[in-house]
Amino acid sequence: MLSVPSPAIRVTDTLDDTQRQQVRDLHGRATAEDGVSALSEQSVLHLASGPGRVRHLLAYAAEQLTGYAQLEGVEDADASGELVVDPGARLHGVGTALARAALEHAPQARIWSHGRLPGAGALAERLGLTAVRELHKMSRPLGTDDLDPAASALPEGFSARAFEPGRDEQAWLSTNAAAFAHHPEQGRITLDDLRERMALPWFDAAGFILVVADDKPDEVAAFHWTKVEDAVGEVYVVGVHPAYQGRGLGRPVTGLGLAHLASRGLTEVELYVDGDNQAAIRTYTGLGFASIMVDVMYSRTVHEPLSG
């Protein structure tokens, strides 16, 4: 274990190359120790962001990075944050110092704990934070039943096609923003965010499925964006434009993505869904998914705590 003095917290709106690599190395060690990533995909992408996107807080013991926190939307009511502490520097107050510094910059911020780790829960209790949101990770096997066309048959007047880079970006952004208008992360996605993801090794336009009305082929009525990493498929995001909700698109567009993943020979699929989205949880449970992990978001009492 490291000999860890009280951490010195440095705050910056951009990371230089050395800092960025230090954070990635620390994050890798923590992920290997915990079995779950402390930083979301978006936070990892934000390590390379320019000024104005996020705020970075780095905890140092001498010149050794012992912890890292990231805040997004510092001035916003729905600001959020994540933090990670080097496994060798834990139980030395690094996480407490980082969390306190983050909340000084954004008192309203809600802090994620991925995987509901005991240490994160103890830190939240010490700081007087309350659980205000849960994100369930659900999973199920993929099989030949997912290739049955009946499971993904669209209502009359609708058809499906793959996302076309250079054609569909703005139409998809419009539908995504409308479908997730009240979602604190998904609803914020910009064209730059979309292009960042399209540049990642896992992006596959064939697995980015759009549903369009036959009389409006350039508008996106619904979509299912799938993802494949480490031989596991993911229901990355499913959305239906509010103008098309209630038209029976949600279940078949989900089925179209599952069929695509099954056609690639994958044997497992996972997804993330908010704990208070009981309608979605019922839908996914009906499709055979079961919860395997829960992420928890903690906050001061400026936000409504979870009931019961």
UniProtKB/TrEMBL annotation:
UniProt keyword ATP-binding, yes or no: no
All copies of domain N-acetyltransferase, residue ranges: 10-143, 158-308
Name under which the protein is recorded: Mycothiol acetyltransferase
EC number: 2.3.1.189
Lineage: Bacteria, Bacillati, Actinomycetota, Actinomycetes, Micrococcales
UniProt cross-references to Pfam families, sorted A to Z: Acetyltransf_1
Binding site for acetyl-CoA 1: L83, V84, V85
Described function: Catalyzes the transfer of acetyl from acetyl-CoA to desacetylmycothiol (Cys-GlcN-Ins) to form mycothiol.
Family membership noted in the UniProt record: Belongs to the acetyltransferase family. MshD subfamily.
Subunit structure: Monomer.
Signal peptide: none
Reaction equation(s) it catalyzes: 1D-myo-inositol 2-(L-cysteinylamino)-2-deoxy-alpha-D-glucopyranoside + acetyl-CoA = mycothiol + CoA + H(+)
PROSITE patterns for this protein: GNAT
Enzyme class: transferase
Record: residues binding acetyl-CoA 2: 238-240, 245-251, 277-282
